[in-house]
Amino acid sequence: MIYLYGGPIQKPIDDPTFFVQQQYWDLLERAPDESGTHYWVSQITQCGTDATCISNQRASVALAFWYSAEFLQHHAGLRNPPGTSPDFNNQEFARLCYVIYLQQDPSQSQLDYWTNQLNYGVSYHDVVKAFIEDGDYRTRFDPAPPTPGWEGCNPTSEEIGNCENCCGVQTYWDYESCRCYIP
After folding, report:
1. Are 20 and 44 in contact (CB under 8 A)?
2. Which residues are CB-neighbours of 151 under 8 A, at least 6 positions away?
């Protein structure tokens, strides 16, 4: 296993394919299908390198899973009847954002905050965007730090520092081979 050090590193959740696959696991609780993955990834990658577009498309893709029949089957009562406003029971939507994205139950004050935001006109898109860009959500996908001395590899801080600053490219400390790795 390779552990990533140095910075800044791209988190796996920043990869469009990983992100889409994670939506399948988090919201539909199943492995993604190939055609669905391809479709949703293309919705994000069409943005090229436009960070604002990517951010908005990621939120749009994530929100689309909320509207899927498959998701709604498992969350009876979340969606209000078609043609009524708002689309969802706002309090349940806010609660599920914590459960799904942060994998925790919200405190009453957290639940009240997001419910009030939704009640006063903040869009579901913007709420989902806030959760998927939240540091606690992103931290879920950080690589696990190695245990010092793991399998006999215990690099010095100087070795890791030299690896981090090597060659002007992103490098990783490989604990299996106990050396700097350049992809």
Report:
1. yes
2. 175, 176
User: Could you give the CA distance from residue 63 to residue 130 in angstroms, rounded to a whole number?
Assistant: 12
- How far, in Å, CA of 183 to CA of 169, rounded? 9
* Selection from 141, 182, 153 nearest residue 6 by Cα: 182
Q: 6 and 174 in contact (C-beta within 8 Å)?
A: no
User: What are the two backbone dihedrals, phi and then psi, of residue 87, each rounded to the nearest 5 degrees?
Assistant: -65, -35
Question: Measured between alpha carbons, how far is 88 from 163 in angstroms, rounded to an integer?
Answer: 50
3-class DSSP state of 81: coil
Taking only the tens of pLDDT, the chain with its 183 residues reads 333 333 344 688 999 999 999 999 999 999 999 999 999 999 999 999 999 999 999 999 999 999 999 999 999 889 999 889 999 999 999 999 999 999 999 999 999 999 999 999 999 999 999 999 999 999 888 876 655 545 567 777 677 667 766 555 556 666 666 777 655
**Whats the size of the chain, residue-wise?**
183
What is the rounded CA–CA span in Å between residue 170 and residue 183?
Answer: 8
pTM of the predicted structure, to 2 decimals: 0.75
Domains of the chain: 2-139 (1.10.3130), 150-181 (no CATH)
H-run or E-run covering 126? helix 124-132
Give dist(CA 132, CA 112) in Å, integer. Answer: 19
